[in-house]
Design a protein that fits this description.
single chain, about 280 residues, alpha/beta, 11 strands, about 20% strand
Length: about 280
């Protein structure tokens, strides 16, 4: 069973509409106790679209993991079943096709949001400090997941044998369809700066056609690090993305400038977006 939490907007029913799908990041099991968690569910009214929260079932129950990345075992993961549920839900809500669906998440939720969009061809992903390849995340979390879900399979083996489930860029290549991806990344986060962002930039260089609808938005916040942007900023940027039909048509790299880049509260001021050349 995959826990979902739908927030339908009554004034949108019966008319063409959009669906925003929110995916969880890491779950604090000491707080959840293995119960379903719907991160950002209190934000639903901040968005002028239908909203649904998706809880990773791997974080639920007596054998819950804080991070499962949508994985179930060597032969299964949650993406196909979630997509089926969302398509049925979309039809009843008046969401016409994958172009009406946007997937959002941060960290592990960003990984899963992108995988959902890749397999929902035509949909868009907007992510914050997303993990490109979950097997390259922090070793203790990866080790726990591989032991519980993959019988102790080494991360390197997973990257080889289950490449498209481990790395969303490999999934994009397999699908062969240009992916609409808006990627927000804090370059003050060491892991995001040194592990994930280089993979994105390398992919853009190697696959210009598949990445033509990528938009990278780089920002700096030394205090937040890998933690996601605050609610006010996230809602403003995400609503701006929802209002646009598509990301930019060409691959772009942007830096978001702030008046006070080292203070979290200054992140509400994401106004000056200045092009930055790739290294």
């Amino acid at each position: 069973m995959i826990p979902l939490y739908l927030h339908p907007k009554g004034d949108l029913l019966g008319s063409p509409a959009q669906l925003l799908v929110l995916l969880n990041g890491a779950v604090d099991l000491s707080v959840s106790g293995g119960r379903p968690v719907f991160q950002r569910s209190t934000w639903a009214e901040d968005f002028p679209v239908h909203v649904v929260n998706v809880c990773d079932p791997g974080t639920v129950g007596p054998n819950a993991l804080p991070l499962a990345w949508g994985q179930v075992d060597t032969g299964n993961w949650i993406v196909p079943d979630v997509l089926h549920a969302l398509r049925v839900m979309s039809e009843s809500l008046g969401v016409q096709g994958p172009e009406g669906r946007t997937y959002f998440g941060s960290s592990a939720g960003g990984f899963l949001a992108t995988q959902m969009a890749v397999h929902d061809i035509g949909a868009r992903a907007v992510v914050n400090n997303a993990q490109v390849d979950w097997t390259r995340w922090m070793a203790p979390a990866v080790k726990l997941a591989t032991q519980r879900l993959f019988g102790g399979m080494y991360p390197k083996t997973i990257r080889t044998k289950l490449a498209t489930r481990a790395n969303f860029l490999d999934a994009i290549v397999e699908r062969g369809h240009p992916q609409n991806l808006e990627y927000w990344v804090n370059i003050e986060s060491r892991h995001d700066r040194t592990v994930d962002l280089p993979q994105i930039r390398d992919f853009i260089r190697r696959h210009p056609e598949l990445s033509k609808n990528f938009l990278i938005r780089v920002y700096t916040d030394a205090i937040a690090g890998h933690n996601p942007l605050d609610r006010k900023t996230t809602v403003r940027l995400l609503n701006g993305s929802l209002a646009a039909q598509h990301c930019e048509e060409e691959s772009m790299d942007h830096t978001l400038r702030f008046d006070e880049p080292h203070r979290s509260e200054s992140l509400a001021v994401l106004d000056g977006i200045v092009p930055q050349a790739s290294p």
